[in-house]
Amino acid sequence: MEFRPDGKRLASCSYDGSVLVWDTADPARPTPLARLRHRRLVNASAWNPADPEVLATASADKTVAVWRVDDRGRTTLHTVLARHTDDINAVAWLPDGERLICVSEDGRATLWSAADGTFLAEVGAHEAHCMMVSVSPQGLVATVGEDGLVAVSDPDGTAPPLTRRYDSSIEGCAWSHSGRLLAVARDDGAVDLLTAALDVVRTVAVSTSAARAVAWAEDDSSFVVGAYDGALHHFALDGTLLHRVEDRRVWPRSVAVAHGVVAAGSFWNGPHLYDLTTGRALAGPDAATHGPNALAQRGDELLVGTDSGRVVAIPVAFAEGAPARSIDLTDGPILSLTTDGDTLYAGTYSGHVLRHDGTTLVSSPALGAPVPSLTVHEGSVVAGTYNGEFLLLDPDTLAVRERIEAHDGSVKSLAAVPGGFLSAATDRTVTAGGPHERSTLWEHGNLVNAVAALGSEAAASASRDHTVKAGYLTRLPDGSLGSAQVQTLLGPDESVKCVALLGTAEHPVVLAGSYDFGLYAWHIDWDDSAATLASGRVLAEFTQGLSCMLRLDDGTVAVAGWDGRVLVVGLDADGRPVIERSLHLADLLHTPTAPQTTAQGAARAVESRAA
């Protein structure tokens, strides 16, 4: 998300592959002016400092496009930079308005001519994904990455880059408008203010969860931080907290400031605009989006947790025109679901676990970080958090019984197996066992988004390294779980988000969904990994990235994508995966006769205050 320097235009980027340019001359009435398209999700945009009609956009389709957008909303595609080797995470202009810096998942920072797309130079490199770039008015280029490296270089100078290394991932940075200070948003929830020589001027504690984005007021007297506690934090230059904005619809990974207005990303259908001085809401999105993030099964119902905070319940054996129930649990994204009998548990982006039994809604206390994974184990609800913890919660009150430091990164996925559960995390590992005693099954080359089990016999995991791994589960002499005959499956062109297994442990079929919008399938041959590699194919294509999968009781797998499509995959008589049925959530949610339960209002809301 990026304001034009005059504050009259805002470019917002979306997972649906589009960029919307908004007229924000009146920030209380933002109006869509133009829509630009990429082939994959769009990660960033940047307005040209020398020509206010020129906008650069960076996408997971591995390109940066340069557009001209005039004041009437007419658009012209000016240049597309040569396709990079991996997703482009951010883009920034040099002060001359003629050159662009692009940073990529491949760790590289590259310099390009915007006029003709000529590659000019490589200006930096990281050992892991390079996540953000910011250019000072003096032309100094700052890049940060998941390797914890902050690097500052001068493309027009001869001095070697300056670097500073952190123990935690760094995903956000921004030069002040004067160029005197560089704000760095840290994965441990702090923001450092650094000089151009990368000396620390001040460390500001922001949140118990990761700080992800930072933007400066025009006079450099304050800055705004978006953190994974779901809030926007406005600080004075001396580190004093001026105010905090909480809205569960906000996606604070993207923040921009111009002319006294703060813009933040949203899980709904448009940006949020706030007054910088007071934090008062000026404008916001007008409709929810119901992108699925989580699936669970309760009896004969398939439950779909969405970005809007709504859980949609449809028959597992759904057909066209299937009846649907919807339960409004909260007004922010639901990231995870699990069930225990008739009781539904939901993990939220705002850092709560919710319990709903059909009549009563119970909320945990604030847990300090988003909850992307849930399971039930030996009388406790296990919540995996962005802080790398397993939280053991009382299943009735949701009071926290115990906090366990489980991973060195966010716990993205949990999968129950007999006697324990599997976990996948951003520290690249897949582990198995109970809450305390864990063993590592295997590691990926990058963070692991999801893990799935086939009973107690086999498991598979999906990673940002563009691969899926699958292996047998074994019981080691000490009683812990191990793995054997682990295979690596290739196919997706981008990060793999979700995974599931079909069939039997001897002849499993692995399904995986990717940010490249594809649903992939492999037949596992434990004795011939080359045959497994050759079996990979695209089974279906979505219009956005795939988000979640769930193995159903009847041996089929439910698959959902952020475009709202839900389908069920089974095996035909020859053991080949086939799509058995499909629906779109929008068709159900827009049906006037669909019954709806608002759990916040119709049910008795109870919040657990226990520590």
Automatic annotation (TrEMBL):
Keywords: Repeat, WD repeat. SMART domains: WD40. WD repeats lie at residues 1-23, 35-77, 81-122. SUPFAM superfamilies: Putative isomerase YbhE (SSF101908), Quinoprotein alcohol dehydrogenase-like (SSF50998). This is Repetative protein. The lineage of its organism: Bacteria, Bacillati, Actinomycetota, Actinomycetes, Kitasatosporales.
